[in-house]
Amino acid sequence: MMKLKIIIITITILITLIIPHTYADRGIIFIKPNVSVYETGQKAIIAWNGFEEILILSTDVIGEEEGMAVEILPLPSKPIIQKADFKSFEELQKIIMNRAFEFSRSYGKGLGDLKSLEIVFHEKIGLHDITLIKALSAKELTYWIEEYLRKVNITQKLQLESLEYLIQDYIDRGFQYYSIDLVTVSKIEKSINPILYRFNTSFLYYPLKISSIISGQTQITIFIITKEKTIVEHPHLQKAYYIGFGIKYPIEFQISKMELEKIDSRISELFNDYAWLKVLEYRGYLNMLKYDLIITVKQPEIPIYNIAIIITTLAITLIAMKIKRVE
Question: What is the pTM of this model?
Answer without folding.
Answer: 0.73
